[in-house]
Amino acid sequence: TKASAHFFGIVVARTQMKAGSILALLPAVHAHGHVTYPKSRHGGSLAAGGHCDSSECLWFSQPTSIVGAPTLPDLMRSFNVDVAGGQKDWSATMPWRSPGTAPVLGSGCGVGGGNVVPLPNGGIMTDGRQGFDGAKLPKLDPTVWQRGSTQEVAFGITANHGGGYSYRLCKLPTGSSSDVSEECFQRTPLEFASDTQWLQYDNETYQYDKMVKLPRFALPLRKTNVGTHPAGSWWARVPVPGCRLCDQSVCGAGLMPNMTQKTHVPEEGNFTYYGGLPWFHQQQCAQSCAGLNLTACPPGLTQFAEPLPGISGYTGTYPPIGHNGLPYSIVDVVKVPSDLEPGEYLLSWRWDCEQSHQIWQNCADVRIVVDESVEEA
Questions:
Q1: What's the rounded mean pLDDT across residues 330-342?
Q2: Which of 41, 112, 282, 327 could form an SS bridge with 132, CB 3.0 to 4.6 Å?
């Protein structure tokens, strides 16, 4: 299809790989994130926040770009926010510049490692499931949602490339994930139920569950349904600004990875990657500009204003560097449509990045009921 051409020459043959450690990828880790609530098939949790201990942050699509010109309102920008058009508008083809239009691999739940081809920007599964369709992960006991209600959802960030996200539902007519597709999710985008969202800190980094109980911290939710796909669907900007240590245009004109060129990167371990060294070195430059390994950005050097003091950054610096991510989840409240047919659904979270040609997706099992009290009885 026309849209699939924007995956820039993806190699279809599955690449056989040995299981490796995410630690080998840290010098070039790219945007990584995952659902932390409700319980997802990918393994994230509110207790772990942005930690990525079990490959939960490795389900995505790359490389992918928008089809056509940017449609995102300027007030929703998250990177290079004061530039629109011209040679310095280096994010013009990134997924977030036209939310929902960039094509994805798989069925709406991401694919392991982002592609069947491993790229040295965090695009490798630690368990050998490179290119595996996330919709085919084992089904879990569903979270029960009453139609017409409002429900909490949340995600964590392991590496922050800005952009924004949407939550969608897809009904499983037979209860089987074989009926799932990105197009199905696009038919039922969810609306945000509040103008506020919250940070909920995890229990791992500082053992909050044992030492101290932190409250949630409220943030203003910046959302839009203008210039989005499907038309009128609601998307929210990631509220945590990345750093702006330098203008990313100094890294050169945007390169796409060469999906057929094997690339040996000594600092990345003994793995066979693709993409080409020129592209890889540009990725390293871009990440340095964004504040790789800074817990929070230096004063005044953020892509946009911090929503709360100290809430900014690219990756966590807690040992091992880059592995633990940002130590909280971003919690939203969404509306469950009142006209949904009861039954089994998958909830899909889709994060379209603005600093990288990447889209993150996770899925969670949900059961829609007419009356939750009857279901519990």
A1: 98
A2: 112
